[in-house]
Amino acid sequence: MKLTILGGGGFRVPLVYGALLGDRGEGRVTEVVLHDLDAGRLSAVTRVLAEQAAQAVDAPTVTATTDLDEALRGADFVFSAIRVGGLEGRANDERVALAEGVLGQETVGAGGIAYGLRTVPVAVDIAQRVARLAPDAWVINFTNPAGLVTEAMSRHLGDRVIGICDSPVGLGRRIARVLGGNPKEAWIDYVGLNHLGWVRGLHIAGRDELPRLLADPDLLGSFEEGKLFGVDWLQSLGAIPNEYLHYYYFNREAVRAYQQAEKTRGAFLRDQQAHFYEEMRDPDAHALAAWDRTRAEREATYMAENRETAGAGERDADDLSGGYEKVALALMRAIARDERTTLILNVRNQGTLSVLDTDAVIEVPCLVDANGAHPVSVAPLPDHATGLVCAVKAVEREVLSAAESGSRTTAVKAFALHPLVDSVNVARRLVEGYKAAHPGLAYLK
């Protein structure tokens, strides 16, 4: 089975390959094709994968190419993890927004809109090529903003594109662990959009154990989200929010922390990864060891400003392992082998949430089999969550419209309607600031 990885020179690709190395089942991935526009980054990552393969038996073959059509032909699965504009683009997203006093995070608020505006046209082109060159392939999208990009691609690929994210998986794992349950056996009642969802129940052996967690302040305050949001707020909500909702519930504090930070997250990762890729120019460097060191630092500093604002302290060791590669592998296995499983995924609504239309991409538990991912019916969201979900989905639709039409006016509307942008005039300045920073937004007229 052939897996094509778009963004194949990306830093986290070895996580995906490492997961593949542990799969010994029939119908497993035997061929991996890496595609990237940067040949130097491709070479660096290929070296890391070669060292990983040297420690395994019968590892999948790896080839690399800068030709997108060549990479796509004959693919059974396409894993999309591109970053349009690179980490320099992410750093600029943060810088422009913070100069206006609003959040510049890569998937939330102004930064997420800017990232979406320059990514959607590229993602649509990829979707159209997949439909033409590999019509039977399944596309697994990890490109951020994941929900928005998945919805853009679904207009050309239908349900054959599925978005993944490790954030809900990590949240469910932490809650189950605190409650003394096995995360693999727990049913997680989670619903929302990507980076905008809530756990409303966690069932172990058929019993919802979330009320027990919410009623115990010591237990509730013992894990990442309890420390991040605070016990009182979680008890008020009666649910456990995705960590990215910290940007909404504590927006003023988050913006101030980012403004006061020595470097934004994007600038930190840009410099950190530049050092890694520079190190890989040395043909004698130990690629896997260098990658491991860099990854450990990356994971340990994740959402550092938010945790500092909340006084949450360092991340627990168990939360440093990510997890999106495991979701990707489980998804591929379920489809390729009809190994039925349940995963939290980004898929078209299909009537699951009555407040959104059928084609809106949402993030919910799905039953996955050889025919793809099927969203599970969920209870309606409470009013406060419904308001946020509908508002952010409306913004996503304006981003898609602006990307399709090239309308600057529609782009301004997208920024102005976002709950974390507080003025139409700010929205206008954001559009001009982002157009100046990103040549890829020159299409907005």
TrEMBL record:
Binds 1 NAD(+) per subunit. Its cofactor is NAD(+). Pfam families: Glyco_hydro_4, Glyco_hydro_4C. SUPFAM superfamilies: LDH C-terminal domain-like (SSF56327), NAD(P)-binding Rossmann-fold domains (SSF51735). The keyword ATP-binding does not apply. Belongs to the glycosyl hydrolase 4 family. This is 6-phospho-beta-glucosidase. It comes from Streptomyces cylindrosporus. The lineage of its organism: Bacteria, Bacillati, Actinomycetota, Actinomycetes, Kitasatosporales.
